[in-house]
Amino acid sequence: MSIRRTLTARGGMATVAVTAGLLLTVSGCGGGDDGKDDGKKPAASDQGDGDQKVNEKPSGTDGEVLAEVRGSDSITLTITSAVREEGGFVTVSGKVANGGSKPWVAPGWQGDEAELSKNSASLAGAKLVDKAGKKRYYILRDTEGRCLCTKFSVGVSPGNSKTWYAQFPAPPESTKKVDFQVGDMPSASVELSGE
């Protein structure tokens, strides 16, 4: 086979591959908007940065509020999920609501460890406390010191709330209840659920 035929064949195959990719992309993006409201609420990923009104019911695994605490500046922390995950860690999640009159950016929630200094406006300083086992579990972080948690980079505006998550090493299976602590908020006791 000549070089010219090989190049022509390769060019044709590349064109077919690009066309197929574009068709798949277009077909994946279209449809569904016939102007009718199906009554479903948008998923969290469809709500931009997660900014929502304070009076909405928090949603977790099943929408149940496991714990709720109020701190200074009219901040309310709600926990809707505390789940043991495969791999030996616990994911705690919920919402933080700003009932005050000023924007809130999680002051002091990032903790005071030097390694966590790059985690400003985040939950990097959060802890799980196993009172029965007399042990504290600090937030997990990657090799560069970034926490495996939510970062409130734009804060929470007055009257709104944002969803959050934080991951910790899992306590022993015998530990069923832990206290979640962050910043100046009171401790929130939650029961851990299985995977």
Automatic annotation (TrEMBL):
Residues 33-43 have a biased composition (Basic and acidic residues). This is Lipoprotein. It comes from the Bacteria. It comes from Streptomyces iconiensis. Residues 32-64 are annotated as: Disordered.
